[in-house]
Amino acid sequence: MTTGTTGTTGTTRTAGTTGTAGMGGGTAGATGAAETALATGTAGSGTGRLRRTLLAALVAAAVVFPLSAAAASDVPAPVPAAFAEDAAPQSRYAANRANMAEAARMAQDADRPGRAARLRSMEAAGAAQFLAFDGRGTGRAVEVFGELETADRVTVLVPGSDTTLDTYERFRAGAVALQQRLRAEHPRSAVVAWLGYDTPGTVSTTVLTADRADEAAGELAPFLGRLSAMAAPGSRLSLLCHSYGSVVCARTGTGPAVSDMALYGSPGTGAGSARELPTGARVWAGRGSADWVANVPHVRLGGIGFGADPVEPSFGARAFTAGAAGHSDYLKPGTESLDSLAAIVLGTTPAPEATHA
User: Fold this and answer.
1) CA geometry: angle 103, 211, 159, nearest 5 deg
2) 2-33: per-residue pLDDT in tens?
3) Contact call for residues 217 and 251 (beta carbons, < 8 A)
């Protein structure tokens, strides 16, 4: 078990961005210019190449970021529903479905039929279970799969870049696949898809720094405490953190309820080792053999980059097998990576348990 000291986190919400799928779980092969630039370096390539890599990404971001941010900011939506701290999940679900339906109507009236259609799909004909929903801008959403109030195995998925309401379906698909895999072995399981922060765009000035992650950690930490109170007494919570989401988790003080934290497709965390993370949970790390993020330079210069590679033995995380997963494939049905992540959640032993290949 690893321990660390709680770091400083921020709580200010900033505008999100949209873009092509990249460091955040998009469809395979759909990557932005930042991904292409980052993939040109290696951990041992030296500072010259790293600086050229980062400069290329930032130049591209200077062009793309203002356009994508502006496109998202004009989507109208009602203010989010407000709840008492002890509001039951079912009351939250009902209020957020109503809010989502109104957001879809407003988007349609504003000639944003694509957003309207996506919101209607998310609402799932009145069956969706959202603990939180905010349709403004790029949006936020926290969706539950399974019966949270009776679950004794609860998993929180934290996404990476370019995860917004407009790309939400790919994030939801991973949550559904994990829930189905868990339920086959342990029926009292629930999965929470936590899009509770404004993710950076793959092509943006923010994806190379921890600023968004610090802000997200300030949202995620108290959420975990509330979630634990909503689930069955003594429930076991796990954090599964993809790509830039691993930077978020690495800055989140998890409290005693979280037993396991898994980092996958991670570009680094900003920490030098698992012991530096503000958690008492077991820390796991895995990477698929087809994941392009392996080529990201694991260097940190002047607040840019994320440093040590979590899958290196020197980082001190427990290894899990991810098979041939690409960057967007970890939660696909039938994959070795999905089996390994399910085993972490359920408390069985992935292979290998504590050695890195």
Assistant:
1) 50
2) 333 333 333 333 333 333 333 554 433 333 33
3) yes
